[in-house]
Amino acid sequence: MFTQHLGKGDGRAALDLASGTGVVSHLMDDLGFRVTGLDWSETMLALARAKAKSRGRTISFRMGDAENTMEPDDHYDVVVNRHLVWTLVNPAGAFAEWFRVLKPGGTLLIIDGDFVNSTLRERILSKLAGWGQRLGWLKSDAVSNSPEMMAIHRSILSRVYFRDGARADAVADLLMRSGFADISIDTRFGDIHRTQARNWNVLKSMVRKSQHRYAIRAVKPENAV
Predict the structure, then answer these.
(1) To pair with 177 at 20 to 30 A between CA atoms, which of 35, 90, 132, 205?
(2) For 28-101, where are the E strands, in sequence order?
(3) pTM, two decimal places
(4) Ramachandran assignment for 219, one of left (phi > 0), alpha (psi -120 to 50 degrees), beta (any other)
(5) Domain regions of the chain by residue span
């Protein structure tokens, strides 16, 4: 997905927003990009730096706010983020910021989804998966949706812009209004789903396949000022 939408790294400068423990940053580094990871959690940054040290990589991880990066104008060839947009309080402001730090002709790649709305099929499969795990018929999830975690999720959701769900069309519309062009939406996650399915039970895998997940590619026009 990254090579399809971004092409080869070839030493181009990439900014990974809300980089966490560096999963995407390391992937981008493997693809030949010169990567800077930005996150505001020192714990996450420490883990990302330790991973880079153990792999002998020179990825730069530093503290920063994805909505106000403090990075230079027209600096990056690529800006990427995964599962960040749905958490934004002011996405229009964030998109304007990402537009600013991209070079003219640079590319933004967003990977996200609607984690609020669910189809009837998804709800039924989720119920069945829960019962199967409690009865020991199905493999338990690697991450448990405990009452505490669900409370945190609801608290975050109450404060964000996309509290009713980050649908791809709505995100793309905001990107267009922020000046981005050549916007495309990719929902072909089949290979990713099949890889993830190796770590989940069959019903959990079916739930994930039914979710509205997407990648959005957008370009800063060459003549942008």
Answers:
(1) 35
(2) 34-39, 60-63, 76-82
(3) 0.82
(4) beta
(5) 2-115+165-200+212-219
Tokens of 25: 């940053």
Average of per-residue pLDDT across 125-149? 56
Q: Give the number of other CB atoms < 10 A from CB of residue 206.
A: 19
Question: Measured between alpha carbons, how far apart are the two ends of the chain, in Å?
Answer: 29
Top-level class of domain 2-115+165-200+212-219: alpha beta
Dihedral sign (CA 6, 11, 12, 13): positive
pLDDT tens digits along 178-223: 999 999 999 987 676 567 656 655 545 555 665 778 999 999 999 9
CA separation, residue 88 to residues 17, 64, 96 (Å): 12, 15, 13
Q: What token pair was written down for 180?
A: 């981005």
Distance CA(39)–CA(44), nearest Å, equals: 7
Q: What is the pLDDT of residues 55-100, one digit of tens each?
A: 999 999 999 999 999 999 999 999 999 999 999 999 999 999 999 9
